[in-house]
Amino acid sequence: MLPIPTLYDTLQSHLCQVLSGVPRIRITQIRNLALWVWGLVKARSCHLGRVADQLPIGGSKPSRIRRLKRFLMNPRILIDAIYGRIVQKVLERWHKDYLTLAIDRTDWDAFNILFVGIPFVGRTIPLAWTVLDHEGNSSFQEQKALLEKILPWIPPHLKVGLLGDGEFRSVELMRYVQSLGWDFGLGQAEDTYVILAKGRRCQLRDLAAKPGQVRFFEGVYLTDLHLFGPVNLICYWDREKKEARFMATNLPAVHRTFRWGKTRSWIEGTFRDYKSQGFDLEATRLVHADRLQKLLLVIAVAYVWMYHVGRWVLRTGRRKQLDAAPKRSFSFFRLGLDWITQAISRFQPIKVGFAPYS
User: Fold this and answer.
1) d(CA 310, CA 354)
2) This prediction's pTM
3) In this structure, are 254 and 124 located in the same domain?
């Protein structure tokens, strides 16, 4: 039977190993990151008091809270350097030659978070994020800055495709993605004017699919102003939101591309895991964007860890110890979170890793 500090030491030691050699990263920063991740997973909440209650260290509760706050307030925490190394672990065992990315934005209280990640089996593994200093949609420049952040982390041999909803419909973004040599599948607004292959000019709403229908158009030019194209167009009915949707893509307008585009919606499950169904992001009372950026670092590290464990649970035949359904009904994130929670409560060895595909 292992005491809690020994279990925590497993996480801290693994993080020290993964982050060794990262420039300007101090061992104290890694230790505090490990404390934050440990407390977050045990508490299943971002509330400082609840996280502090779960830390395997001595001292009064106010002193533990102050330690957590110092990490969030520390200007020397290099988020990209730390998480860039985690992303390397995420991608080092990627088993395909094609990498799909999904970009989206979520509102939370006073904050507006732009997010990009890898859709994978019902969820999206976080790659990068930024907290916007305004309400409403993100701009092309903000989207470009986020994508540029991850460019050095993507292995050069991988072919990449980007998915996004109607917020990311701009011609500027499509041109930028093409300049990178990437594919794209980006939502379009129903009032967008297009010119079809036979020269017909209309709005996308005139091409809307009916319930249960998918329509394909090739050789389309987008907008009166830009006449961008030719691109291909997929029009379909969103059963969940009960409305017509439109996706512009450089890929062939076929059912395979349509199914690929639908994986964009997996990011919504990840946002739920971040919030009400997982780490309870709403419980934090942070009001400073730079502190939220560091909290999102903690959540991302914990999320990839839980995903890794969830995959391991499934692949090693342990799923039915947590999920009694005939087929998997829990996400990998949920399997990982439940497994680690169970291991900690029973003082059993814990598994740590950041390669969800292994």
Assistant:
1) 11
2) 0.94
3) yes
Q: Are residues 241 and 302 in the same domain?
A: no
Q: Does residue 287 contact residue 126 with C-beta atoms inside 8 Å?
A: no
Is 38 within 8 Å of 53 (Cβ atoms)? no
Residue 52 has pLDDT above 70, yes or no: yes
150 falls within a domain: yes
Specify the long-range contacts of residues 283-288, CB closer than 8 Å, at least 24 apart: 283/45, 283/46, 283/47, 283/50, 284/46, 284/47, 284/48, 285/47, 285/48, 286/72, 287/110
Question: Within a domain: residue 278?
Answer: no
The tally of CA atoms less than 13 A away on the side-chain side of residue 142 is 21
Question: Over the stretch 170-191, which tens digit does the pLDDT of each residue have?
Answer: 999 999 999 999 999 999 999 9
Answer with the one of 241, 271, 301 that is the final residue of a domain.
271
Taking only the tens place, the pLDDT of each residue in 264-302 is: 999 999 999 999 889 999 888 888 999 999 999 999 999
Q: What is the DSSP string of 278-336?
A: TT-GGG-----HHHHHHHHHHHHHHHHHHHHHHHHHHHTT-GGGT--SSS--S-HHHHH
Verify that 296 and 338 share a domain, yes or no.
yes
Q: Which of 242, 271, 300 is the last residue of a domain?
A: 271
Query: What is the β-pairing status of strands 123-132 and 159-164?
Result: unpaired
Q: How does strand 228-238 pair with strand 214-222?
A: antiparallel
CATH number at residue 142: 3.30.420
In angstroms, the Cα distances linking 344 to 38, 41, 53, 280, 337 are 10, 10, 15, 20, 11
Contact 192, 222 (CB under 8 A): yes
Q: What is the mean pLDDT of residues 203-229?
A: 94
Domain that holds residue 245: 96-271
Q: Is the model's pLDDT at 256 over the cut of 60?
A: yes
User: Band of the pLDDT at 3, cuts 50, 70, 90?
Assistant: low
Number of domains composing the chain: 2
